[in-house]
Amino acid sequence: MIRKELKAQYRNERLAARDAIPPDERIEKALAMLVHAGDAIDLQPGEVVSGFLPIRSEVDIRPLMARLRERGARLCVPVILDKRTIVFRELVPGAPLVSSGFGTAGPGPEAAVLDPQIMLVPLSAFDSTGHRIGYGAGYYDRAIDQLHQKGLNPRLIGIAFDCQEVPSVPAEPHDVRLDAILTESGLNFVSEVIG
């Protein structure tokens, strides 16, 4: 099976497994992630953290994002500008959210555009070496590449449920490895996972 087909198969299987988690159980798993990572993510006051507002059966990381804000983070979320580009707009309490494509919502064009230093990245699937499968549109790959072109190297923390792990993601040359993976079982730094 070729790489793209295997990625598509993993994406479909792992998203189906995620969809099968009952909503109340997803909430409990998200709260476990808050306990594991709320104070464990290395964060300096004023650092910019990109999170995401959940769509479909994604992990709801809003409690985790609120904890990171309490610790001094500036929060932002991705907003789709066109079929190839996302930007990260600052998420401030009370600011209105607008539809921002791909079923997501985010701050409107009046919000500041920020360059994240820490990125909480939603996943379809992942492996223990830090390789990820996204949703197939490549938005995060391009956004990370644009940050690298600016000389920035954000820390990447993949966010998923345990059931989304696969034995091995068929990595491609453009794929950027995650620094850590957060699931309901804990925050695992890739360097620790692969020794």
UniProtKB/TrEMBL annotation:
Pfam families according to UniProt: 5-FTHF_cyc-lig (PF01812)
What this protein needs as a cofactor is:
Mg(2+)
Residues the record lists as binding ATP? K7, A8, Q9, Y10, R11, R132, I133, G134, Y135, G136, A137, G138, Y139, Y140
Keyword set includes Isomerase = no
Molecular function terms from GO: 5-formyltetrahydrofolate cyclo-ligase activity; ATP binding; metal ion binding
Q: Please name the SUPFAM superfamilies in this protein's record.
A: NagB/RpiA/CoA transferase-like
Protein EC: 6.3.3.2
- Please give the catalytic activity noted in the UniProt record: (6S)-5-formyl-5,6,7,8-tetrahydrofolate + ATP = (6R)-5,10-methenyltetrahydrofolate + ADP + phosphate
Q: Name one GO biological process term.
A: folic acid-containing compound biosynthetic process
Indicate whether Magnesium appears among the record's keywords: yes
The protein's UniProt keywords, in alphabetical order, are: ATP-binding, Ligase, Magnesium, Metal-binding, Nucleotide-binding
Task: Please list the residues that bind substrate.
Answer: L53, E58
| Transmembrane segments annotated in the record for this chain | none
Q: Which family does it belong to?
A: Belongs to the 5-formyltetrahydrofolate cyclo-ligase family.
Stored NCBIfam families: MTHFS_bact
Which named protein is this?
5-formyltetrahydrofolate cyclo-ligase
Please tell me the species this chain comes from. Rhizobium jaguaris
